[in-house]
Design goal:
Elements lengths: L2 H27 L3 E7 L7 H8 L2 H4 L2 E7 L5 H7 L4 E4 H9 L4 E8 L5 E4 L13 E4 L5 H12 L8 E4 L3 H10 L4 E4 L3 H7 L4 E3 L9 E6 H6 L1 H20 L1 H11 L4 H10 L12 H11 L13 H11 L3
Parallel strand pairs: 1-2, 1-3, 6-7, 6-8
Antiparallel strand pairs: 3-10, 4-10, 5-8, 5-9
Helix pairs in contact: 2-10, 10-11, 10-14, 11-12
Length: about 325
Amino acid sequence: MTTKYLVSLLALFAVALFVLGAPKAVMSAEAPTRVRIAYASRSSSAMPLYLAQTKGLFKAEALDVEIIQMNPRLGATAVVNGDVSFATPFVSTFRGILQGFPMKLVFVHLKKGPYYVMVRPEIKDVQQLKGKRLGVATIKGADQLNAEELLQAKGFNPNLLQAVAIGDGPLRMQALITGAVDAICLAPPHDLMLKRMGYPALAGPPGVGLPVAGMFTSDRLVRENPQLVRRTIKALLRSHHYILENKQEAIQTLLQWLPQPPDIAEHAYETEMKTLSKDGQMTDAELNALIDRLGDKKRPLDEVRDFSFARQAMKELERGR
């Protein structure tokens, strides 16, 4: 066998190995999976999504994530229809599950939002709110329910208020400033922004409160692509841990996500970001209490939540994977 013939055989063997190994190579280099996540408003509670995107945490899980602002009442329908993979607005989407939408709660960002009832400067006492207008994101949404809890704790009947649907935080702020409404309920950083402008907080934060943001997805996605759900949750857990462990870097990201004075961003971090869930879960007792508060009838918890992805992601993070 000549040297030339031997070289030719080795070359053919190398080509064969490359061809046989091609599918694996192509698979490992294929484009990241496209994921769309709907959030309600550009606020501190949505910042973990932005941080996971800008710090490459989604990319590390082979995910190409688009975050989309959407009316919270549309989130459940968008998830079920497949228009988005996940929706984060909590109260309206959770109600959708209780009404029979084929969805699951798979992750919790904030178990309790630090809401404050902000009012016009001329209102000095809670009883002055009788017959006044309360600007809300959506009727019976998280901000309205928190406002009702806070006002009841002050001895005021919230049924004496007229709720007016305005929209997200900046829009509600503007409605209060222009006098279109007399009171609104907001979370940081908007509460401190208004205080600096002379608008007082009549009440807050809530004692019981409500979850502000979570991750809801369809039963279909859980069934057909559980690995995508797990990878998304893992990236968000990494985002939570990064925020909790890196205050200054988290504040800088918050300033990029929601431009504001640095001291107000620090206030938002201390009052809201530091309360991010460390494991993305709620207890059965917490969920049952939430169902009693938001639903007309009970539903088995297995039809409401699936935290197995959060538990698995936590184990992988603890193992350093």
